[in-house]
Backbone:
């Protein structure tokens, strides 16, 4: 009798809609599946930084004087981790969102009964998975072929973790904001890739910091890539390699300040510039 009486009440009870976080995690699962099913995107994101690292580290492999026995190869490996992280978080994300906007995907998602924040949670989850995967690939190559030494202390791993998370957050937010710059999907790749390529050269990725002209290095210092690379060099290289930096120090405090500032700037840019529709749609 109790079951019979409680059945109508159970049927009449309103169904609670999934929350923003739950929908965001579900959206993230979809994003990850779509990414790994697109083989060209997987190859570009994972293979390109690794291939560039192998090319530079193989061609330039001499030991650097007065740097604690550090080789040019190890210098490239540490810096390319930062470039690979920015490729997956800034470059690929900005291009991908610009393409989704041009194809009308964003407009359709906006019309669905899903909180807008869930879409961005899904993108963040995608970036986190691809960023960790990219870093693991580069570390495996660096340790296996170029004698990169993994940190031997918990403090070094802590430094790696916060540089990774702050850099990933800053580049992800900036990538979302930058997705509104291209006018359409066809122009997305060149518009995003050109400044990113220039930034890599003036941030100490392909050229040692102590050989970059001071004016160009000063420009690179305004952006997160230079500080991410410097932070990772501090994690994976011996302290004697500080002599290769512009300030002859790892400057962890300044790294945290710059990356933290870019997290704030990136968030403000996202809130003020992100568009769900193309310019031709108004």
Residues:
């Amino acid at each position: 009798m109790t079951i019979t009486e409680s059945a109508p009440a159970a049927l009449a009870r309103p169904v609670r809609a999934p929350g923003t976080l739950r929908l965001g995690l579900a959206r993230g699962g979809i994003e990850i599946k779509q990414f790994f099913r697109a083989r060209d995107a997987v190859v570009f994101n994972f293979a390109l930084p690794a291939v560039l690292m192998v090319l530079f580290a193989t061609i330039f492999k001499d030991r650097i004087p007065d740097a604690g026995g550090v080789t040019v190869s190890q210098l490239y490996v540490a810096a390319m981790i930062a470039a690979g992280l920015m490729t997956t978080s800034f470059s690929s994300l900005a291009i991908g969102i610009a393409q989704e906007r041009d194809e009308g995907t964003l407009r359709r998602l906006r019309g669905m009964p899903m909180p807008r924040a869930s879409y961005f949670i899904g993108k963040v989850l995608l970036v986190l998975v691809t960023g960790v995967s990219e870093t693991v690939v580069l570390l495996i190559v660096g340790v296996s072929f170029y004698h990169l030494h993994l940190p031997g202390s918990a403090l070094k791993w802590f430094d790696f973790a916060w540089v990774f998370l702050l850099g990933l957050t800053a580049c992800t937010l900036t990538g979302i904001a930058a997705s509104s710059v291209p006018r359409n999907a066809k122009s997305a790749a060149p518009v995003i890739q050109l400044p990113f390529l220039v930034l890599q050269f003036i941030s100490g990725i392909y050229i040692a910091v102590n050989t970059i002209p001071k004016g160009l290095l000063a420009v690179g210092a305004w952006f997160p890539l230079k500080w991410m690379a410097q932070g990772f060099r501090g994690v994976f290289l011996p302290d004697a390699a500080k002599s290769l930096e512009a300030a002859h120090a790892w400057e962890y405090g300044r790294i945290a300040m710059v990356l933290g500032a870019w997290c704030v700037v990136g968030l403000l840019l996202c809130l003020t510039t992100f568009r769900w529709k193309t310019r031709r749609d108004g």
Summary: The chain has eleven helices and no strands.
